[in-house]
Amino acid sequence: MEKKTMHSCGHGNSPRHLGSSVDVENGIVRREIFTDRRIYDEEQEKIFSRSWLFVGHENQIASPGDYILGRMGEESVIVTRDEKGKIHVLLNNCRHRGMRVCRYDRGNTSFFSCPYHGWTFSNEGKLVKVPKLDSAYHKKLDPSKWGLVEARAHVHRGTIWATWNQDGPSFEEYMGSSLFFFDAFIGMYDGGEGEWEAFGGIIKWKIPCNWKFGAENFSGDYYHNFSHSSADRVSFSPSGQKGRHTYDPVTRAEAPYRLNIAVDKTGHTALGQLFKGDHDYVPIYQEMPIVEEYFRQAFYKRREKLKEKARWFPHHGTIFPNLSYSRVTMSIASWHPSGPNETEVWRIFLVPKDAPTEVKDVMRHYAIRYQGPAGQTEQDDMENWLYAHEGSRGSVASRYPFNYEMGIGYEKRNWPVPWFGPNVQVTEGITEQNQRSYFEHWAKVMDDGPGQGDDEK
After folding, report:
1. Average pLDDT over the chain, rounded to whole?
2. Among residues of the chain, what percentage have pLDDT more than 90?
3. Beta strand pairing status for 28-29 and 402-403?
4. CA 113 distance to own-chain centroid
5. Which long-range CB contacts under 8 A does 18-24 form with residues at least 24 apart?
6. Integer Cα distance of 137 and 201 in angstroms
7. What is the per-residue DSSP string for 91-103?
8. Out of 10, 155, 197, 455, which could bridge 16 as a Cys pair, Cβ 3.0 to 4.6 Å?
9. In what order do the strands lie in the sheet with 106-108?
């Protein structure tokens, strides 16, 4: 790992440098970054108003006029498909007095009308009607200048992203080398170009902790299996074997590398397993013939299409700042900030659109008992994070930083396969490399503004 220059931390009303809150070289992170109101307010401006943020999935707005509500930091946005099929991400905020012009989670409409004074906007964001435009404004108001504020949007393999940073890096530049690992997650089981179907709407709930606890956990925590020991002791996954992951039987049979991936200068991280050579399909769903045959065929098709790169099997990861994904249940979670002491979690679950009903049912049932506010592992995690947050607020406890030094000095580059990319830092097994990388980038953005991925020089 490269040596990192630490900055001094200022106080008072002058701009602060937060590098000293995150000491990558020694694996030290101060607790104030989870609780301090001023730091939280700065995050809204420096991180959430400039980063590419996940706002939804194309499948959720499949037809012209469809819309869902999304969030970008604390801001409500409307993710809508206009009559021509183009996707827009619009600030849900009337330009007249700031009232929400849409208060439903999802629907289909050509117009959004403010319930306060009646200003009406098209689903492209244009202001199309103003009451008393002639008699009260005397035709001097120019509607073309008062449309809904529109974010810069991008669709990547069905996922919809947006940023307020109109002149910033492209989505691909922002992702850098992490795009391979994210694509491995969002790719179809057979390696093809099929579609995912988001089922059950968006599950939303609140946790009394800072938003970074969830993002950090999904970025790289192989170390917290104590939390889920109750699920590990029973046949929790659909394989019928002891364990909670669908891939547990495969891991035991093949003994692959279990890797931590951190992409330079992005804060993006991933975890997964790399098979050490040619490997065969390991039966998982023996008691469900249709499901077993679906995944068996998908395995061989994927290996044929992806060749060598089919050796990589993603587990989960975090795209900086607040998007985490899990291949175990095919879910995407956003850790939305709701003040320094509260996070609103939004999670969607995906199934292959063309899969047999039996496959969709197995995936849906597994996802319900695994994640979400009623899921076994999510409940374990929430308990950890709320107490960790509570333990960061005390006047005495807050004086003592968190320890992230596990595995310092054992990072490797361009290993174990060159196609991971030269800007990828890798460690095997249990380490806190990814968390350090995540917080290193957090500190850089808070001090200097966002970069543009691993191509940044």
Report:
1. 91
2. 78
3. antiparallel
4. 31
5. 18/443, 18/446, 18/447, 19/443, 19/444, 19/447, 21/443, 22/439, 22/440, 22/442, 22/443, 23/401, 24/436, 24/439, 24/440
6. 42
7. ESS-TTT---S--
8. 10
9. 87-91, 75-81, 66-72, 106-108
